[in-house]
Design brief:
With 558 residues, the protein is α/β, with parallel strands linked by helices. Helices cover 34% and strands 18% of the residues. It is built from 18 helices and 22 strands. The chain has an eight-stranded mixed sheet. Strands 3-2-1-4-5 form a five-stranded mixed sheet. A five-stranded mixed sheet has the order 8-7-6-11-12, sandwiched between helices. A hairpin with a 2-residue loop joins strand 9 and strand 10. The longest helix has 29 residues. 54% of the residues are buried.
Length: 558
């Protein structure tokens, strides 16, 4: 049995993705479409290339697919748009399924989010909190999941009581896209660091909450996409008016690159951040109360808010794909949960191999303009210690928006200036932070421990005095970092460099950020990595078991 999970148009119109699960519930392959088509967030594009990759990885054809599981109830949102399932599959996926089309299962959006988190977690039973912009009929939900039992929906909150809408409004007030909420979170840290006073815009009481912008009257169970879009626009506009009143301005007074110096911009970002932190903290407690266990899973776009995640007590798990791409995984698992759970969290390394699905190495002329050598970890370590900044592309890609050392830019973070240089390399605003990666033992000395969040770089943690001293390049203005702890040989090159640093008596910690240029998805294949390396001011590239340098750089260090 083969189940293809998808986040796909018309409802899943951003972060489209495909995930293949076999009859045992084992994840064979998973990719976001943007990694394949090289269009950031893959807006309005079906996950065709991602689905093809999944089939190639398994060695099957589309005719072998038994079920296509969709992470939305498209029949509610687009009633009458498609004549039958074949019509829907042609529009949403685009594969040729042959003469035996698969059955289509439409999984409610929050159910798919919840399944993606619980079944990826190490927990046998957990409360699951889903918080995002909206599903079909809700914006926040509480669930109880347990192995061998049907998931139980405990509580729901209306679409227009959405924390995602409140955050979208702040992001757009700041001049960002709603898809750039991470910038809002990074800017909010300046408000925390400066002790900025912000109004409380949420009323918390009796396991419930009410936001300052109250919910609209909604259709439940039969709202269409058009109705939801209209209410989204109305609610976001009301939130923007509220932020305008708070800031005394309709937008920032300084350009994007200087927003950290704009008190009004920092005030709005921190106000929105506090709304999320206060409400999610309360919802997490409610989830634990209703489920009767301390184990907690988070999912939904709001679960990408690392600052909020880092404030929550454990045991806590967030999957590597809590955003909408993750419903491709969750929908497949909702149809066919894993039969044999190991008690270990999901590996994130489920994407395309750097040499592509077929595996051949690119021909030599592809790198004729570069200096190539066999990979030597001691040489890479020496380059890093000399202040060079490089990139790594090895093995199967990690899934989700965080680069986890198989598609990463790396540097030694022993000065604050390295943050400046890497932001220049990536053409990012200078006020934006970077994350650190190390091994578990040393991580316990650098920042507050996180049992699971640091596996996928999904929780902010307070840096210790040692962390601030030895790795200032990955400590944000509020004293936090978004750490990754790298286990065993999950990312061979970066792990080997960390071990080499430790043997050399140097703090074994690196700056780690995604390997991509401005406006581009994280690199996927060998060709992507080489193109990005050539386009960016990077000093070296670890590509599989090879090391590449630009000729001028290599000649300058002979």
């Amino acid at each position: 049995m083969w189940i293809l999970g998808v986040n796909a148009p018309p409802t899943g119109w951003h972060d489209t993705a495909a995930c293949l699960v076999n009859g045992e519930g084992e994840v064979i392959a998973f990719s976001e479409e943007e990694r394949c088509n090289r269009v950031r967030h893959s807006l309005y594009r079906k996950p065709l290339s991602a689905a093809r990759f999944c089939l190639q990885q398994a060695g099957i054809t589309a005719a072998d697919i038994d079920v296509v599981a969709v992470g939305w109830n498209t029949q509610q949102l687009y009633p009458g748009r498609f004549t039958d399932d074949a019509d829907f599959l042609a529009f949403a996926v685009g594969l040729d399924f042959g003469g035996r089309p698969p059955s289509v299962v439409r999984v409610p959006h929050h159910a798919a989010h919840a399944a993606s988190s619980f079944y990826a977690s190490p927990f046998r039973k957990a409360g699951v909190l889903v918080v995002d912009g909206h599903g079909e009929n809700e914006s926040s939900t509480v669930w109880t999941f347990e192995d061998g039992a049907e998931p139980r929906l405990e509580r729901t909150w209306p679409r227009t009581s959405s924390l995602g809408y409140a955050y979208d409004a702040a992001s757009t007030w700041l001049g960002f896209s709603f898809l750039n909420a991470g910038k809002t979170m990074g800017l909010a840290a300046y408000g925390r660091a400066r002790g900025t006073a912000v109004p409380s815009l949420v009323d918390l009481s009796a396991d419930d909450f009410r936001l300052a912008v109250g919910p609209l009257e909604e259709s439940t169970g039969h709202a269409t996409a058009d109705e939801i879009k209209e209410q989204y626009d109305t609610t976001v506009a009301a939130w923007r008016e509220r932020y305008t009143k708070i800031a005394g301005a309709a937008g920032p007074t300084l350009p994007e690159g200087r927003l950290a110096d704009d008190p009004k911009a920092v005030l709005v970002a921190y106000t929105a951040q506090r709304i999320v932190e206060e409400t999610v903290t309360a919802l997490a407690a409610t989830t634990r109360k209703l489920s009767g266990v301390d184990e907690l899973c988070l999912a939904g776009g709001v679960a990408l808010n690392c600052s909020t995640n880092g404030t929550l007590p454990g045991p806590l798990y967030v999957p590597p794909v809590p955003h909408d791409a993750g419903v491709a995984l969750g929908a497949a698992w909702y149809v066919n949960p894993p039969k044999y759970r190991t008690g270990r969290p999901l590996t994130p390394y489920l994407g395309t191999d750097v040499d592509g699905p077929a595996g051949p190495r690119s021909a030599a002329p592809d790198t004729a303009d570069l200096v190539r050598s066999d990979l030597d970890i001691d040489q890479v370590t020496a380059l890093l210690l000399d202040g060079h900044v490089g990139a790594v592309a090895q093995g199967r890609a990690e899934v989700g928006p965080r680069a986890l050392c198989r598609r990463s830019i790396i540097a030694v973070p022993d000065t604050a200036e390295v943050n400046t240089r890497v932001n220049v390399i990536k053409d990012r605003e200078q006020w934006r932070p970077f994350a650190g990666v190390t091994r578990p033992g040393y991580g316990a000395r650098l920042w507050e421990p996180q049992e699971h969040l640091s596996r996928y770089m999904l929780g902010a943690a307070k840096a210790t005095e040692l962390g601030r001293r030895v790795a200032p390049g990955v400590v944000h203005v509020d004293g936090t970092t978004r750490p990754q702890v790298l286990l065993s040989d999950e990312a061979p090159a970066v792990g080997a460099v960390l071990d080499a640093l430790e043997r050399a008596g140097v703090p074994p910690v690196l700056l780690n950020t995604s390997f991509n240029g401005k406006g581009e998805p994280i690199v996927n294949t060998r060709g992507d990595a080489l193109a990005a390396f050539r386009a960016m001011d990077l000093d070296f590239l670890v590509l599989g078991d090879e090391l590449f340098r630009k000729k001028n750089d290599a000649e300058g260090t002979r």
